[in-house]
Amino acid sequence: MAQFGFENDIHSILKLDMPITNAPMARWQRKASSSNTSALTGLSPGKSTNVSLNASKTPSKTPGKNKKQTPSKVGGDRFIPIRNSKQMDVASFLLTKENEPMDANNTPMTSENQKAWSMSLNGYNIEDAKILHLRGKPLNAPEGYQNNLKVLYSQVKTPASLKKTRYISSTPDRILDAPELRNDFYLNLLDWSSQNVLAVALHNNVYLWNATRGDITLLMKMERDEDYICSLSWTKEGSYLAVGTSDCKVQCWDVETQKCLRTMASHSTRVSSLSWNDHVLSSGSRSGHIHHSDVRVADHHIVTLTGHSQEVCGLKWSPDGRYLASGGNDNLVCVWPRVQEGSASNDSQFVWSEHQGAVKALAWCPWQPNILASGGGTSDRHIRIWNVNSGSCISSLDTYSQISSLVFAPNYKELVSAHGYAHNNIVIWKYPSLTRVADLNGHEDRVLSLVLSPDCSTVASIAADETIRLWKSFEVDPIKKKAKERMAKSTSSVIHQSIR
């Protein structure tokens, strides 16, 4: 029987049904006792809080996963993104104030006190340092303010950010040969008619190139080999071409019949510049004289303008026909009023002497008839913009290169300049700011003249490298072009209906 009693005792021990009195404390008991101890010591004043948790304690939640962490008790820590010294002091002060009991007699802090506390603690008013201003327009930055908080202030978009830039090809659309071209800065050997015909003078010949069909026609050839063509100018309608020659004459040609209608001899030296104003042809010569000729009458010479002392190499009538601008080798720019019928006055409206070099480049603004642009030679290199109503120089720009020709491009309201020494290129400028838009390089020698196509989309340049290059840099956006055509058609239809 004693044997069976011993076996029963062994089985009862192996079943572990009885409590183990001398065993170590369970893990859940250790955890509960440690949390209770830390809570009591944290809330008891005057006690030491040097209670360390078990190193093997596993956090119940992964750090960074739970973004909405609310302090479980008053006086808990908070998230402070930038812990500099001032912010740590502020945080410590706020924590201390939260742990103190509320005073019933304590009055709420006024806005003035809050502003004073903010200025003393943070160095700035926290109401003025908002990242986003939700009501009304964004605040304007105060003068001298250092934007350390990346505050979003109001700003106006620049016009450049609103406009899309167009593509301007750096290579010409077409290159034409111009053999035997006379390399003379003071001559005007290229002009483009309203009927899309390009006239070019090569030594003593005048050639016509039809830009629509691509045909080339020899219009005229001077009798003597030592004579040469000095200037060309189309009428507004594009049917007649004036030709100035080295033998002091001006010829008028009908390009349709290829016949010379008349030859006018009034100058004593070569005729280097020409410009039409309806039936009046103005011509400038090496003597410095400018002659007005009425091509309708036999006695064509009307009046002589004597404002220049040297060769008149630039001559342009304004689009409205009110003023004639002339530039000479004497560095002068003169503006002459239109000669009235029966008037013999030859007094200039303005004489400008600001240029320090020969003035050949002249251009009137098509959309502002009172604006004149002039360009100086090698000794000057400046583009100057003049107001002929007031006689003042609006702006001036140093191009650092000889200026041989100027053309306004109305499609984009730009100014185009041709240059000789030292760049030998073409530059497109935005008007009126005169900021550089593009450089057109390709000529191997100085550019002598520029002309614009009738649709204002292409500029032709002729240079001493005996080439003519066509730059298609001002094509209008097809959508805008169609809209403009539709508007023109609707306007014409309204006019026709009113006439009927």
From TrEMBL:
Keywords: Repeat, WD repeat. InterPro entries: Cdc20/Fizzy, WD40/YVTN_repeat-like_dom_sf, WD40_CDC20-Fz, WD40_repeat_dom_sf, WD40_rpt. It comes from the Eukaryota. This is Cell division cycle 20 homolog. Residues 31-63 have a biased composition (Polar residues). GO terms for molecular function: anaphase-promoting complex binding; ubiquitin ligase activator activity. Residues 176-471 form the CDC20/Fizzy WD40 domain. GO terms for biological process: anaphase-promoting complex-dependent catabolic process; positive regulation of anaphase-promoting complex-dependent catabolic process. The keyword Ribonucleoprotein does not apply. One of its GO terms (cellular component) is anaphase-promoting complex. Residues 27-79 are annotated as: Disordered. The keyword Lipid metabolism does not apply. CDD domains: WD40. Belongs to the WD repeat CDC20/Fizzy family. Coiled coil: none annotated. WD repeats lie at residues 222-263, 305-336, 377-396, 440-472. Pfam families: WD40_CDC20-Fz.
